[in-house]
């Protein structure tokens, strides 16, 4: 189980609990649709964090006869459930509450309390976003600070294999945006004495969360089906194999994530013709040893050896991977 993802998830859980209690009290006192949506959002985030913790716990179980590659994909299933929960509960609840506030407006009370609560929530969310960005950068092995860390996090988020890290990042960022929108809406509603802004903010927050829920559901569906590793990783696997003495080419590399930080690799390498079986086995063992040593994400590897057919495949495939990486 990856400690970085666990740490980010626990931080998000306690932050969501604190923020939910703050927002819930303010929403009850202030009668604001935007604040209600934010309270609902934090409640959903809290429940989602629990789902993800359950998924990571179940995913850590060792392999057995029925699941020879382990239970790593449990984390993708529970992350999928969390994304559906975000869409069904948070998004639809926020949109519904905003709609009713527009067609049947109720005055906002205790605006000062709402502003204080939202300001405190913004501080909590900024801390959570900072922790989530750190988790993203650690997951992909990138070092950056300040504003560069923000840009690097968004640039590398699609390369993150751990759905818990990815979910927490999107969740916390959406929460921060929602808090800012709610804060602006409450202020404008008070200044203009027009409650429509409060209802509109609730609907906007709901739409943002709905988009996030659908996007994360699609992402986890892709991982459950069986996504291949990023082209950078595939390229590194091939390059490592090509540097082993006796390997003349790499015909094929197939990869699939079987867990948040577990990669299955099937590859075919070529060796010089007429090698003894013992020497071929030594080459396979050395290729496997080097790949596992340099890429600790590789947990399962199967290598097939064929005789050199004098046609080089790896350079052509490497060029194709470079083109795929650009897109």
From TrEMBL:
Q: Which GO terms describe its molecular function?
A: monoatomic cation transmembrane transporter activity
Give a GO biological-process term.
zinc ion transport
For this UniProt entry, which segments traverse the membrane?
A: 75-96, 108-129, 167-189, 195-218
Compartment(s): Membrane
Membrane-related topology note? Multi-pass membrane protein
Keywords on record: Membrane, Transmembrane, Transmembrane helix, Transport
Q: Does the keyword Membrane apply?
A: yes
Keyword flag Lipid metabolism: no
Question: Which domain of life does this protein belong to?
Answer: Bacteria
Query: Which Gene Ontology cellular component annotation is one that this UniProt entry carries?
Result: membrane
Q: Which residues form the Cation efflux protein cytoplasmic domain?
A: 232-304
Q: Which Pfam families match?
A: Cation_efflux, ZT_dimer
InterPro entries for the chain: Cation_efflux, Cation_efflux_CTD, Cation_efflux_CTD_sf, Cation_efflux_TM, Cation_efflux_TMD_sf, SLC30A9
Q: Where's the Cation efflux protein transmembrane domain?
A: 9-224
What is the protein name stated in its UniProt record?
Cation diffusion facilitator family transporter
Which lineage? Bacteria, Bacillati, Bacillota, Clostridia, Eubacteriales
């Amino acid at each position: 189980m990856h400690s970085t993802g666990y740490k980010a998830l626990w931080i998000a859980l306690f932050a969501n609990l604190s923020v939910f209690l703050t927002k819930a009290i303010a929403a009850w006192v202030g009668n604001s649709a935007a604040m209600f949506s934010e309270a609902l959002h934090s409640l959903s985030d809290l429940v989602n964090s629990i789902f993800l913790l359950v998924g990571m716990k179940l995913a850590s179980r060792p392999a057995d006869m029925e699941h020879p590659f382990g239970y790593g994909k449990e984390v993708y299933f529970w992350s999928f459930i969390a994304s559906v929960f975000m869409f069904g509960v948070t998004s639809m609840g926020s949109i519904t509450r905003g709609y009713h506030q527009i067609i049947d407006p109720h005055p906002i009370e205790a605006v000062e309390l709402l502003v204080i609560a939202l300001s405190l929530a913004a501080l909590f969310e900024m801390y959570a976003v900072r922790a989530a960005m750190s988790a993203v950068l650690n997951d992909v092995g990138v070092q950056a600070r300040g504003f560069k860390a923000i840009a690097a996090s968004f640039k590398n988020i699609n390369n993150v294999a751990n759905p818990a890290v990815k979910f927490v990042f999107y969740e916390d960022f959406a929460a921060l945006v929602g808090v800012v929108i709610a804060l602006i809406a409450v202020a404008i509603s008070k200044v203009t004495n027009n409650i429509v802004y409060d209802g509109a903010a609730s609907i906007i927050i709901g739409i943002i969360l709905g988009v996030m829920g659908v996007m994360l559901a699609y992402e986890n569906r892709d991982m459950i089906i069986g996504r291949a590793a990023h082209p950078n990783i595939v390229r590194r696997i091939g390059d490592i194999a090509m540097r082993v003495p006796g390997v003349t080419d790499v015909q094929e590399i197939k990869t699939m994530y079987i867990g948040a930080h577990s990669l299955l690799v099937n590859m075919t390498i070529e060796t010089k013709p007429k090698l003894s079986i013992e020497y071929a086995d030594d080459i396979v063992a050395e290729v496997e040893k080097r790949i596992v040593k340099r890429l600790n994400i590789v947990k399962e590897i199967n290598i097939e050896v064929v005789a050199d057919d004098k046609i080089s495949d790896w350079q052509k495939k490497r060029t194709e991977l470079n083109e795929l990486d650009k897109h």
